[in-house]
Design a protein that fits this description.
By secondary structure, the protein is mostly helical. The protein is built from three helices and no strands. The longest helix has 16 residues.
C-alpha cells in the first residue's frame, strides 16, 4: 500500500501524476483540472478546501520537471 499523500507532499504528488499520465504536458492542465486530478489519486488524503493556487503551481512545476526529464 502506498503512503497517504497530503497537499504538502508536492514532489510525491507530481511524481504520481507523471506516472499516471506520462505524456501529458502539465502546462496544458488548468488549475481546476489539476486539483481534480490530485484529489482523484488513490492515496491522496487532503481536503479540497485546503488547496490553493500556490500549492497547485508548485505541483505543476514539479510535474513539469518530471515530464521534461523523461528523455
Amino acid at each position: 500500500m502506498e503512503a497517504p499523500l497530503a497537499w504538502t507532499d508536492i514532489e510525491d504528488i507530481a511524481y504520481a501524476l507523471f506516472e499516471k499520465e506520462p505524456t501529458l504536458n502539465p502546462l496544458t492542465v488548468r488549475f481546476t483540472d489539476l486539483r481534480d486530478k490530485i484529489l482523484a489519486l488513490p492515496n491522496f488524503t487532503g481536503k479540497r478546501e485546503s488547496c490553493n493556487e500556490k500549492i497547485l503551481e508548485s505541483v505543476q512545476m514539479a510535474w513539469l520537471e518530471e515530464f521534461q526529464d523523461q528523455d
